[in-house]
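Q: I have 260 residues here and want to know how they pack in 3D. Can you give me a structure?
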Amino acid sequence: MLSRLNIREVAEALRKEPTEYFLKACFEDKRSGVRRLAERYLRNKQAALEEDQRIQQLLREEKKLWSQGFRLLAGLDEAGRGPLAGPVVAAACILPPKFSLPGLNDSKKLSESKREKLYTQIRLQALDYSLGSAEPAEIDALNILEATRLAMKRALQGLKLHPHYLLLDALNLPLVALPQLPLIGGDGLSASIAAASILAKVTRDHKMKELHSVYPAYGFNSNKGYGTADHMQALERIGPCPLHRRSFAPVSARLPEKNL
């Protein structure tokens, strides 16, 4: 009988997928605390259902390819094309058909704390993942687009499993002999690309925080190499460091030889 259970026991019972009879009894219970618990249970259940539907929508491209026999799909994305300093980092990620990653989304739409949690969960649940990067000197030598492709190829080369198909955020890899689908805004359209975007973003953020200890004047721990006001002021004051991309106009304009 519900009346014999205290509030804590009711809460515990609601965590164990209650029967319709039990839930109805909770709503009819005289105790307001029990009724609130039942209302919260229904809200949480509805939110979980909507989140599952959203994730299934994110798997739309994956499901098409799985149905065609492409079992191992590698999502690829990068972080760090726009900053004035630091590497561009790419990730390749192969997700299993079934996973539990609530909140999975384009890394740019997530808070730092949410990205960190998903970063841990993706690494635990992925069938395989790998990271690759291109350093500032390579970006300057190749241009940022080709350096991004280089970072992606390095990420692919680090996979232990051999993917059957690639899903990429907008880019293609012409020199990679695998079928591939570039999707504009892919990190919001594909779960595999979204997972790769989180791995790349968090990895790069960690790297920039480490590099801050070597070059603390530029505030890389907070701006991650982007051209924020404090970063630009430091560039004006002391000029570029070895991490800066000299081919990027805001940096090249501040090179010592430009001031001669």
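Q: Anything worth noting?
A: The chain has a mean pLDDT of 95. The first helix runs from residue 7 to 14.
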